[in-house]
Amino acid sequence: MADLLRLLLRVAEKAANVARVCRQEALLFQLLVQEKTGDDKNKKFVQDFKTLADVVIQELIRHDVGAQFPEMSAFIHGEESNKFENGLGESVTVTVCGTEQETAALLATVLDGDHAAASLLARAIHQDPATIDANTDGLTVPLSPSELGIWIDPIDATSQYIEGREEVLEEGRLSPSGLHCALVLIGVYLRSTGEPVMGVINQPFNYKDPAGGGWRGKHFWGVSCGSINVCSVSRPKDGPAGRLSVVLSSSEKPIVKEALTSLCGPDKLKYASGAGYKILCVIQGLTDAYVLSEGSTFKWDSCAPHALLRALGGGVVDLAKCLQSSSGAQDAHTELTYHQPYTECKGADRWANHGGLVAYRDCSHLRSIIGPLKGKL
Ligand code: 2IP
Ligand code: CA
Ligand code: CA
């Protein structure tokens, strides 16, 4: 299934292009950032356009993967629903059509007849992405499409994507917020056990071309399947033994912040936007772990980066299960899985990571983190 990996890298790049086009084309950008003024219909239209960028990206990934691997079609899930209601109250199902013109015509019905915007979007959807140099030659993955399912988060950290603050990333440093936190996440899991086995992360806004060519992206991938553990990011070298560093959401509970401040010290506790970006920081060694005590992430947020962490020898555990477990930290039952919904919940909550999570590169770090949190939550 190295073919699947190469395809996912390609579609993630296509998705990143759409995300960039929505910000770079004045006409689309205007729709994306328009202030909510005027009547309700206008407000709803602006809201819809933000969602439309997400839906379009998810559908293009679904379309391209389903075309090459039809056995997977019924198992490609994502954050967004492709049923859309336009400003006239009509229900439209957004899909990628056979030709650019057909896709443009369909999108125009969602965009209340804005043909110019619809054509720009359709062009980006149907454009072949630049070839990606991913060094996957010689990789064999002993899996078949009929064993696999996919989780897509078309744009994670949407709020940062819309706000669009441009940051210059410093090598080796975690940058808490800005456009670079927005990520395209595509994770592959085993239908039988729910283990994440392959992940692709595309960061559409990694740096701005100094020659004025706009934003350039970066991609990351990993495969973790039996004895095959390969990641495009090499395992960061262990620094001098010192205090652990942990990244949190700025909305994390005070009790968790306090417990972790005593473990890490105030300067090693960091905050950043985007669930996917925080796990990417752990993957890149910009921090040792990401702790989240609430059920505010979903399967589509964690599946892709989880596969990369496993390939590096780490993982993502359910925090609540870890705190209950007598062994205190990692065992096979505490790792997050991706195949079973919480049947007692409705809508997106069926796929929430309800127990919170800890993303880690090293089991010994996980144990150190769980200790101070025991009995506090
Ligand atoms: C969000 C996004 C948020 C994150 C939240 C996710 O996904 O990653 O940034 O909250 O958990 O569900 P926080 O930044 O506080 O960690 P989306 O942007 O796709 O809704
Ligand atoms: Ca998300
Ligand atoms: Ca999203």
TrEMBL record:
Q: Which PROSITE patterns match?
A: IMP_2
CDD domains of this UniProt entry? IPPase
Q: In which pathway does it act?
A: Signal transduction; phosphatidylinositol signaling pathway
What EC number(s) would the UniProt record show? Answer: 3.1.3.57
Q: Which reaction does it catalyse?
A: 1D-myo-inositol 1,4-bisphosphate + H2O = 1D-myo-inositol 4-phosphate + phosphate; 1D-myo-inositol 1,3,4-trisphosphate + H2O = 1D-myo-inositol 3,4-bisphosphate + phosphate
Residues noted as binding Mg(2+) in the record, renumbered to the chain: E79, D153, I155, D156, D301
Q: Does the keyword Amino-acid biosynthesis apply?
A: no
Biological process (GO) annotations? phosphatidylinositol phosphate biosynthetic process
Output the Gene Ontology terms for molecular function.
Answer: inositol-1,4-bisphosphate 1-phosphatase activity; metal ion binding
Q: Which SUPFAM superfamilies does the UniProt record give?
A: Carbohydrate phosphatase (SSF56655)
Spell out the InterPro entries in the cross-references: CysQ/Inositol_MonoPase, Inositol_monophosphatase-like, Inositol_monophosphatase_CS, INPP1_dom_1
Q: What are the alphabetically sorted keywords of the record?
A: Hydrolase, Lithium, Magnesium, Metal-binding, Phosphoprotein
Signal peptide as annotated in the record: none
Q: Which cofactor does it need?
A: Mg(2+)
Pfam families with a match to the protein in the record:
Inositol_P
Class of the enzyme per the UniProt entry, highest EC level:
hydrolase
Subunit composition? Monomer.
Q: What does this protein do?
A: Mg(2+)-dependent phosphatase that catalyzes the hydrolysis of the 1-position phosphate from inositol 1,4-bisphosphate and inositol 1,3,4-trisphosphate and participates in inositol phosphate metabolism.
* Family label: Belongs to the inositol monophosphatase superfamily.
Official protein name in the record? Inositol polyphosphate 1-phosphatase
Give the source species: Cottoperca gobio
| Gene name linked to the record | inpp1
